[in-house]
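User: Can you predict the 3D structure of DUF402 domain-containing protein? Sequence below.
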Amino acid sequence: MPAVPHHVKTETFDVAARTNTDPKGFVRPVDVYRVEPWGLYMARPSDHPQFHYLESWLLPELGLRVSIFHFTPGNERDQDRYVDVGRFWREGELWHSRDHFLDLVVRTGRETLVEDVDELFAAVGAGLLDADAAEAAVHTALRTVDGIAAHGYDLDAWLHAQGAPVSWR
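Assistant: Sure. Here are the predicted structure tokens for DUF402 domain-containing protein:
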């Protein structure tokens, strides 16, 4: 069954106000923001039924958002890192994200899965994402998958080699 296109997910990260405005427009309090030359780290609680805490790195030069979801009991998933492919940029104390539909699920030491290819094609077909952005998303995803594989399926090791030595709480 073909994917039904959904709107392009955008978020705002307000470092000064310590808030994160999610794709549905909800303003969430943030426990920790850390700005580094390679990106922005965010850690915040969540009221989502499947996870209670979220850690993310926005990595503009790589076109990635890397996250760790702290799942609630019974909702655990076989993943260590979740990667959104998109566009990420900074305007002063505000950071922004625009999701480009492709996602990667990293199972450290084992594999990296590419997800939501159907959503990418549906979004392009519906005019929600132009062909240039879609092509860039595919190149970003493939470069990332190759890089992770070359580092023993260790995303953090690949990011370190790319000049983005991420750390988590």
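The first strand starts at residue 10 and ends at 14. The CA atoms of residues 50 and 129 lie 28 Å apart.
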